[in-house]
Q: What sequence folds into this?
């Protein structure tokens, strides 16, 4: 595919997959090159080993980012993605592994000191734990926060809200109360595979199949019965009487001041 | 209060207790809502535990609920000191997934305004840094220049700060010819006089140097290991600039130098920024000189909405307009990590698309996160007031750090 876009151009991906795959083949699940990115999917337990090899033998000196992603339909629902950068080769690769809530990922704080906060963030947002991280506290959410907000099943509105209570003279936490239901607009075209039922279309899906499909060959099959008598359609009597003016004026506003005066 | 008792050499055997203070979250030198729990031995910093996240708004989650175009303005609100630089990574990430060609004029316009944003950002950061270490005047002077930049943004996009002007496929609207003339005129006749004046007050100033030279020295190895980028890594002597090494848009056509530091202290970081302003001005001048005419957004009607006039005339354009502003465009499934050189360092966007009109995941790589994390090891052994100089030299903005 010819590159048309003007996104950052780093060194060519040619030969990178082969060279790296050779050294990490034991733990490698798959190596992908798509959209100009090189991605290595590796076994979770060996992430630290793989990253060490990439850092020491392949000159990916910098760990720029660790991202968590949630795919709720997968057996191991989370993905942890490491973005590495080589200053000497001017190249970037991604390494990813899957994880679930109760399968800790080995920490890479032993390789890069800045992995500490990055792992804390993934833990805070997704609940993925990192074995060996010495300081796995929450980082972005509030003190005392419960839950992991970036999971797909965590509602965007959250569960609690806080306000300053004038009575108690302090900030109080309360369950979220929405004046109207949270609206999530879905503009996907219904003709292109939107997986919801359009209003009025409920019966179209899941309706039981009939043995004999109904056909309307003759007018009698329509179930409309005989044509009504034409005479019945004729109007009877004159038109409806016009609204008569009773002659009374509409009640006006009271006089500005009465003699008796107000209270 | 820490219970750690120790003998101090300065108090002749008298026992001094280490104590813990809160720096922030409401502190003018914290550059936003940063809370640092500091353990001090007298006035010497023993340990710093920065608490971030006080400005966490869940931007990444919000983006997952918006179409690609609707998510764009969130990027302005990340680093609100350099909004267009934030948009740059995002639109490039979308374009990389779409493999969308951007017309040359749009690329020039983006580079021009990205550099103007860099100047705008450095004006604020340098002013704040100088203010943090005790000089008042330069901040007022260069804030005026920042105001000029904001006026240029307003003339291009209609908004001073939250421009939402870079769009997938190009920019939103073309700029008036007079604006380009005025930017050139501003650089030639106004900017450098004022800027050099302001910098002459601090660059060789004894007090400014005493507060910054040899503060928070970071070795090259540490700078690499801690994931530094931008002026922080360049001050450590590494000529690493994504505009040069991984050029995007028309940066590969630009001639500019990468200023590097020698000593890797706060003073070097400051001076790298000063020099970067000159390089940015160079790039702006080249953009103004070489900018071709032509369309300012891709002609792919399935991504870029039609022009207003066209929309009123053509049925086809009307349908495209309606579809793009309701459903939005679909992005092919896949994932990319796109990082650009924002004024503060590497600003990256990891974009996962599932083929629909909304991003499945949009992870933002803030520059400040790695830098702030190194605050503990950079400040160790320095005095309490040095913490503000170190923070100023990091150039941290919490809209971006906390997202």
A:
């Amino acid at each position: 595919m010819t590159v048309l876009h003007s996104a950052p151009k780093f060194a060519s991906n040619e030969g990178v997959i082969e060279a790296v795959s050779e050294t990490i083949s034991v733990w490698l699940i798959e190596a992908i090159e798509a959209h100009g990115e090189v991605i290595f999917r590796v076994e979770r337990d060996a992430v630290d080993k793989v990253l060490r090899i990439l850092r020491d033998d392949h000159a990916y000196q910098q760990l720029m980012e660790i991202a968590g992603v949630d795919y709720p339909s997968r057996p191991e629902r989370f993905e942890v993605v490491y973005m590495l950068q080589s200053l000497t080769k001017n190249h970037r690769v991604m390494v990813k592994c899957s994880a679930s809530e109760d399968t800790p990922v080995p920490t890479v704080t032993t390789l890069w000191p800045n992995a500490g906060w990055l792992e804390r963030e993934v833990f805070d947002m997704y609940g993925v734990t990192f074995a060996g991280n010495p300081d796995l506290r929450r980082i972005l959410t509030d003190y005392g926060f419960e839950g992991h907000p970036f999971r797909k099943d965590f509602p965007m509105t959250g569960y609690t809200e806080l306000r300053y209570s004038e009575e108690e003279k302090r900030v109080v936490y309360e369950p979220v109360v929405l004046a109207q239901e949270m609206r999530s607009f879905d503009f996907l075209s219904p003709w292109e595979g939107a997986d919801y039922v359009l209003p009025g279309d409920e019966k179209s899906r899941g309706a039981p199949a009939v043995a004999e499909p109904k056909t309307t060959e003759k007018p009698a099959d329509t179930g409309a019965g005989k044509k009504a008598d034409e005479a019945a359609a004729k109007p009877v009597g004159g038109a409806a009487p016009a609204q008569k003016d009773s002659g009374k004026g509409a009640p006006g506003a009271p006089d500005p001041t009465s003699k008796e005066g107000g209270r | 209060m820490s219970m750690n008792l120790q003998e101090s050499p300065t108090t002749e055997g008298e026992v001094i207790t280490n104590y813990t203070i809160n720096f922030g979250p409401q502190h003018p030198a914290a550059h936003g809502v940063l809370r640092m729990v500091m353990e001090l031995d007298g006035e010497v910093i023993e340990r710093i535990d920065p608490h971030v996240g006080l400005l966490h708004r869940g931007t990444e989650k919000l983006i997952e609920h918006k179409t690609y175009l609707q998510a764009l303005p969130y990027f302005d609100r990340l680093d609100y000191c350099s909004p267009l630089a934030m948009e740059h990574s995002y639109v490039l990430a979308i374009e990389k997934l779409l493999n969308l060609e951007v017309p040359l004029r749009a690329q020039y316009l983006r580079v021009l305004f990205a550099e103007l944003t860099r100047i705008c950002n450095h004006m604020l950061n340098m002013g704040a840094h100088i203010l943090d270490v005790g000089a008042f005047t330069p901040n007022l002077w260069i804030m005026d220049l920042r105001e000029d930049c904001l006026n240029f943004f307003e003339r291009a996009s209609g908004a001073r700060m939250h421009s939402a002007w870079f769009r997938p496929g190009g920019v939103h609207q073309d700029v008036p010819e007079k604006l380009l003339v005025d930017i050139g005129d501003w650089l030639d006749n106004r900017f450098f006089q004022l800027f050099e004046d302001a910098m002459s007050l601090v660059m060789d100033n004894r007090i400014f140097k005493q507060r910054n030279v040899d503060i928070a020295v970071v070795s090259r190895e540490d700078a690499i290991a801690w994931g530094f980028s931008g002026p922080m890594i360049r001050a450590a002597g590494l000529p690493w600039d994504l505009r040069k090494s991984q050029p995007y848009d028309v940066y590969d056509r630009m001639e500019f130098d990468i200023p590097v530091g020698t000593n890797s202290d706060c003073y070097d970081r400051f001076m790298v920024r000063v020099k970067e302003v000159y390089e940015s001005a160079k790039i702006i001048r080249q953009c103004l000189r070489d900018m071709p005419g032509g369309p300012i957004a891709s002609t792919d009607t399935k991504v870029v909405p039609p022009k207003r006039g066209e929309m009123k005339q053509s049925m086809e354009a009307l349908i495209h307009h309606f579809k793009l502003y309701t459903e939005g465009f679909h992005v092919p499934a896949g994932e990319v990590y796109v990082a650009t050189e924002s004024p503060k360092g590497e600003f990256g966007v990891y974009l996962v698309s599932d083929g629909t009109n909304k991003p499945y995941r949009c992870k933002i790589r803030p520059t400040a996160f790695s830098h702030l994390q190194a605050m503990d090891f950079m400040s160790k052994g320095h005095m309490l007031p040095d913490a503000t100089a170190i923070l100023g030299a990091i150039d941290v903005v919490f809209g971006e750090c906390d997202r």
Observations:
- Strands of chain A lie at 28-34, 37-42, 62-70, 78-86, 91-99, 105-106, 130-131, 160-165, 170-175.
- Helices of chain A lie at 16-24, 47-57, 115-126.
